[in-house]
Each structure stands twice: as structure tokens, then as C-alpha cells.
Amino acid sequence: MVEKLSRWAVSAALPDALKVPVSEIGYLATLKFVVGKRIATLASCEAKSALANFLAMGSELEATDEEIELAAEIEAAAIDSELDLDAGESILIAVSLKRDVKKLATGDKRAVCSCQPLSQTLNLIEPLRGRIITLEQILAQLIRQLDFGELRGKVCGDPCDKTAGICFGCSSEGSSETSALDALLSYQKHLAKESSEFTAPNLAS
Fold it and tell me: pLDDT (tens digit, 9 = 90+) per residue, 61-113?
């Protein structure tokens, strides 16, 4: 999620979109290397600056040994259940559980949809139900906070998320704020259904 928001140069608005103070924004220590490398090679100077500002704004979270062990348990359970959950998302889930994080923001839809079947064999992830915030929810809040035309221009100017491009009508002549919100809500309801509401069926973040 941070990579896409940085490429659109709107990552600084994430605290307001999540309705949390800057002091509560955290990111995994690996993010600055993984996302930083991709931003450095693929994105604009504006995106690089947006990522740098986000990293300076938020708190870097280093996973503890206990959290790494839990992440390994989560990843092993996902593999056994043939779920599409990568190591990075496993660590993110483990850190969120161990630190009782109230809002876990992720742009990985596969991870969101893996939570329900994973919870059937690993009940310890149940506290995350209803706490996962998706990119669709963040974009809905950004529509309400920022100039719609400018935001649409950023999203359509860097088509790094297919769903966002569809919701903002990037392949058509134009799109309205209302139509974009309706489309985002439709996708969010689908994600909520697929995940058995590990993410909420509305656009509130």
C-alpha cells in the first residue's frame, strides 16, 4: 500500500485517512529496502520524495524473535492450506497481533482473503477480524480529503493498481467523485465477503 500511495504522492495523507495521529503510524523495517528499491528504479522523483517523507514521519518496526516465530507459524499454516500469503504479510500479521494493533493497513488483497481460511486452522489470528484496512478504504477517504480531479490524475497517471484504475474510470473520458466512491464500495463489499469481514463491508477506515 505504501508503495502505491507514494507513487501517487499521497502517502503523507495516510494518518488522516486512517484517522490516527502520526505517532501511531508504523511500518516494518524491511519496507524501506523492498519498496525503496522499487521506487528508486520505477518511480518519479516526486514518488521518491513522498516515500522518504513517509518513512521519516512513521515509526520503523523491527520484528522481535517472538514475532518472527509467530510469523513462521502463520506462514507454515498458510502453506499447509495452500493459501497465497507471503513472508512479508505473515510478519505484518504477527507484529499486529503481538502489539495489539487496532488498524492493519495492507494493499495485498490476496492476504486479506487468506485470513478467513487461515483462521480455521490458526484461531489466534481471529483478533484481526474487522481491523484490516484496504487500499479501497484509504482511497475513499482520500477522495473526501483531497481534490478529486488531482487525485484521479495521480491514480490514472501511474496505473500501479488495476482496481483503483477501474474505480477512478481511468480508461474512460472522465469520472465523478460519486461514481468512484460507488465503485470503491462495490469492491470493498466483495473483499469483506471474501474475507468473512476481516475487513469491513464499508468505506470507513
Answer: 999 999 999 999 999 999 999 998 989 999 999 999 999 999 999 999 999 99
Q: Which residues contact 35 (CB under 8 A, 6 or more apart)?
A: 2, 3, 6, 51
Question: In the numeric block, which cell numbers belong to residue 104?
Answer: 492493519
Burial class for 168, CB neighbours closer than 10 Å (0-12, 13-18, 19+): buried
| Angle, alpha carbons 154-103-189 (nearest 5°) | 65
pTM above 0.90, yes or no: yes
CATH of segment(s) 2-134 = 3.40.50.1010
Three-state SS annotation for the chain: CHHHHHHCCCHHHHHHHHCCCHHHCEEECCHHHHHHHHHHHHCCHHHHHHHHHHHHHCEEECCCHHHHHHHHHHHHHHHHCCCCCCHHHHHHHHHHHHCCCCCEECCCHHHHHHHHHHHHHCHHHHHHCCCEECHHHHHHHHHHHCCHHHHHHHHHHCCCCHHHHHHCCCCCCCCCHHHHHHHHHHHHHHHHHHCCCCCCCCCCC
Joined grid coordinates for residue 130: 474487522
Residues of the chain with CATH 3.40.50.1010: 2-134
Of the candidates 52, 94, 47, which has an alpha carbon nearest to the alpha carbon of residue 69?
Answer: 94
